[in-house]
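Appendix B. One record, verbatim.
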Amino acid sequence: MGAPSGDLKLFGLLTLAALAIIGLLGYLGAPLVAEASAALAPGIGLKTATLWGFGTTVVLFLLFALVAGDGLLGELPFMFGAFFTFFAILTLLIAWIF
């Protein structure tokens, strides 16, 4: 039996490098797995998101009404319709994100 050929040495080095990279990823990736599991934990529910969505919508539409100026009475019916649409979308987005 002779010395290993060049291809066998290259295969051994590549295997060692792959094992070192896998070990390094396992060592450094453990905290990332903990963070990912915390990020996937259930957040706020739909009831809490509804409260936050309603509060945010009221504040924003009060701001819209203040900057509307003289056209407030003419825009009021459109603001009521938009309020409920905005409230529903904002509530679902808050529940989805948080």
